[in-house]
Amino acid sequence: MKKFFWHIRNYFIPTAGNKYHPHFFRKETAIAVGALLVFLQIGYFVHTTLVFNKTGFLAAVLPGVLTALTNDDRAKNGVGTLIEEPLLTVAAQKKAADMAEKGYFAHVAPDGTTPWHWLDLVGYNYSYAGENLAVNFTESKDVEEAWMKSPTHRANIVKSEFTRIGIGTAQGVYEGKDVTFVVQFFATPASGAKSASTPVSTKTIPAKTVPATELATSDKVSSNVLGSETGPSLPVIANNPIVEGLVSAAASPNQTLLSILGGLIGLIALLLFLAIFMHVKVQYLGVIGGGLLLLGLAIGSFYFTAETHVSNVDLPAGSQSTTSR
User: Fold this and answer.
1) Which of 23, 65, 110, 214 could form a Cys-Cys staple with 11, CB 3.0–4.6 A?
2) H, E, C per residue of 113-162
């Protein structure tokens, strides 16, 4: 163990044993860090293009994550926690699949079908109901941010009358891109109505602010449905903090990648500071140059990620749909 720590010290800290030249700042490390940065960018691309759009991953994790984020925002506004309602989830999934199949993105379908048709279809009896929609995103947090920045969608999220929530997704093509359609139903069960609901955790998940743009609805000539899921969101999100953190990170890949790169930048900066100031009288240009090179690579990758990996969430034109009985 002592030998292990000796190697660790020589790798990161300037000492007489490494001739005040930490191995971390050698050429081999710069190559390894460069390879790591490329690997992270490739991993991000694969996750957001293949895993998100070609598998049921989002359908499994997104409803739980968005429900937690929604309940966080309700708590901040002094409104009660929403409970996940299986029938609302099924209705939301049917509406999402319908949009993906028919190529529209709106509260009311081109044939005049209203959001409440889907609630009636699954036999859900309600006194109040509302619907939020979103499409074109890679971050779960971006969806919630976009809804909260839109006054009409925000009104649904913080409406005190609502007590139930259900979220559904479907994969399809929108404006020529493979995307995930998201439908969020809110409701209050009618007096005496039976409900098989599940409490949902409201642990706060830090969000990255991303501008949201509301676009007008446009009808598509055709659209390919890549898949829709009808199963419930992962139950482990509500009772396993470790899994909850991993799921949240996977559902927000851009924020996760930025956090990793930010941590790497901090580590390199700290080690460079130690290399320079622990032995001020013993300086090596190779150490300083290697440190600055590593720092430059990490900072460059950070800004590349921040500037290019941005999802502009689309919301339906006009006000959100609400109804009461």
Assistant:
1) 23
2) CCCHHHHHHCCCCEEEEEEEEEECCCCHHHHHHHHHHCHHHHHHHCCCCC
Q: What is the CATH number of domain 63-189?
A: 3.40.33.10
Pairing of strands 227-228, 164-174: antiparallel
Candidates 62, 47, 58, 78; CA nearest to 144 is 62
- Per-position b or e across 130-144, b if 16+ CB within 10 A of its CB: bbbbbbbbbbbbbbb
Residues contacting residue 141 through CB under 8 Å, at least 6 positions apart: 69, 205, 207, 208, 210, 252, 255
Residue 166 confidence (pLDDT) above 90? yes
Predicted TM-score (pTM) of the model is 0.63
Give the strand pairing for 83-84 and 164-174: parallel
274's enclosing H/E stretch is helix 253-277
**What ranges do the domains of the chain cover?**
9-54+252-308, 63-189
106 contact partners, CB below 8 Å, separation of at least 6 = 99, 133, 217, 316, 317
Beta-bridge partners for 83: 164
Q: What is the DSSP letter of 23?
A: G
pLDDT tens string 262-303: 999 999 899 888 888 877 666 667 778 888 888 888 998 888
